[in-house]
Amino acid sequence: MNIEKIIKEKQGTILDVRTIDEFRGGHVAGSINIPLQEIERRIEELKNMKQPLLLCCASGGRSGQATQYLSQFGIECYNAGSWLEVNYHRSQTL
């Protein structure tokens, strides 16, 4: 799957799994913040989001963990890596 294409074509949902404080410090416009620690208890909410979910964080580590976890529930999701990279690709569509 071409994550860059999904971002540029505004398909799916961008999900930022960093902490609330990190998210407040800067994030992709239109992204949703659900910290990694909350993923497990918000699984039903995540299932109802427009898929695919593009998960991002500071470097790709936490979003990778979240991607593996969510995939077990049949949720179409991809590790998009750093939110800065996602933001860059998103800005190319404006």
Tell me what the structure shows.
This protein is an alpha/beta fold. Helices cover 38% and strands 18% of the residues. The protein has helices at residues 3-8, 20-24, 43-47, 61-71, 83-91; strands at residues 13-16, 32-33, 53-57, 77-82. It has a four-stranded parallel β-sheet with strand order 2-1-3-4. The chain is globular and about 35 Å long. The two termini are 22 Å apart. 26% of the residues are buried. The mean pLDDT is 95.
- Cα separation of the termini: 22 Å
Structural class comes to alpha/beta
Query: Kindly state the mean pLDDT as a whole number?
Result: 95
Q: How many β-strands, per DSSP? A: 4
Radius of gyration: 12 Å
The fraction of residues assigned to DSSP E strands is 15-25%
Keywords:
94 residues; alpha/beta; four-stranded parallel sheet; 5 helices
Give a quick summary of the entry:
The protein is of the alpha/beta class and 94 residues long.
